[in-house]
Each structure stands twice: as C-alpha cells, then as structure tokens.
Design a protein that fits this description.
With 266 residues, the chain is α+β, with helices and mostly antiparallel strands. Helices cover 44% and strands 22% of the residues. A hairpin with a 2-residue loop joins strand 5 (70-76) and strand 6 (79-86). The relative contact order is 0.14.
Length: 266
Amino acid sequence: MNRILYATFVVALFASCARSYNVTGSSSVSALDGSKLYLKALKSGEVKNIDSCDVVHGEFHFAGLLDSVRMVNLFMDDESLLPVVLEEGDIRVKIGPMGPSVEGTPLNDSLYKFIDKHNQLISRMNELGHKQNQMILEGIDEETIAEQLNVEAAQIAQEEDDLVTKFIEENYDNVLGPGVFQMITGQYRFPILTPQIEYIMSKATNTFKNDPYVKEYYSAAQENEERMNGLKEPAGVAGTTALPTDTVVPQAPAPAPAPLTNIPQP
C-alpha cells in the first residue's frame, strides 16, 4: 500500500512540475517577417533569453516548460516589442501597425485591458496638441489657451497616475504588480523615489516588497535619496538592472503618458 501511495505521489509531483506555455503569434508588420524573435526576462539581475523563434510568413510560435508564472518581454534582436505573461494556456499574440495585443490567458487579458486604457489616455493627451492648433486658428489668445490646456493635461496625467497605481495595488501578489512597477521605474536614469512610488510601497504586501527587482530598486532609490539629501557620503549613484523595454509609464505630473508598447514600422 505504501508503495502505491508513493508511486501516486511521484506521478502527481511530476505532473505538477510539467506545466508548459504555448505562445502563437501573427504579424502584419513587414519589418518582422523573416526576423528572429526572443522572449527575455530578468534573472539574477541579468537579462536572459528564455526562448527564441523565427517569423515565417507572418507567423511565429514559442513553447516550453514553465517552472513558474513570469512576465517577459518579446524582442526583435535587441529591440523590445511588448510584454507577455508566460502562464499556462494558449497565449495569442497579434502585432499590427496599430499596435499589439496579447490574449487567451487571465493575466495577459488583465494586462492588456490595462494597456488599452492607458493608450486611451495617450490619445486624449495627443488630442490636446490638435486642440491647441485649432484654438490658435480661431484667434484665441495664448494665455487663455495655455491655461485651459494645462488644466486638461493635468487632469489626464492624474487619471494616468491613478490608473497605474490602482493596477499595481490590485496585482501586488502576482507578476503583474512587479512587472508594471518595473515599467514605471525603467524610465529613470537611476533609481529615484517619487510620490507615486512612495505611495505604492507604503501600501505594498510583503510578496510585492520581496520581489527581487522591487526590493533592489527601492533599496537603491532610498540610498540615492539619502545621498541627495546629504545624509550619506556620495559614492556614485546606486543603480538597478531593468529589462530593456519601450514599455514606459511616466509619473504625474507629466506632459503626456508614453505608449506602453512600440512596434517597429515598415
């Protein structure tokens, strides 16, 4: 009986470790056809290749064993294209001139709903430039234009700040929280503290705080803050490794939210 139970346990253990990911993709961007794509992720402070494949007639496919759910970035050579969550299920990636989409699994669906909302804010911010030109043509004086558009820009920036902060809070305990945190901090030349980052860390769970990237970034940012405030002797600027990515979310107040993905055009 004990041998049967042991055999059952071993089989169950093997099955639990044999999880896999499956990513199928299509592209209508001619610049990608015939190129090599990579899935890359941060591991032990270094950016490492997880998988690679070729784009053939606009189609590509990744598959492999999955030891844990993780957020990675899809690259063409050294150029970051978009974030993908590697998790169990059939992940579908579509890349076109209007932008990418990833769907088919819960975390990817959640991430790209967030990205869509963020991109809507980008569109609203970009429209302010067109609105400014129209107001100038209508003969409205520059001071009035600046006053009105600054108010609208500040409102959009605040909405962006709230959107990002809420999303991270709702995903403290899965890979999306640390992943988007990396996006918002990856824009800085070196780790710094902002009111948004301080707020996020003040509410964070232990799971989030102990994420390797979050922990390293926050520690380095605190050291840099102390040096800038004269509380520590200058010893160079502490830094942290971030996954190279065009997935950037600026902090408010910002002139405009930046796109979360950047697809090369023909």
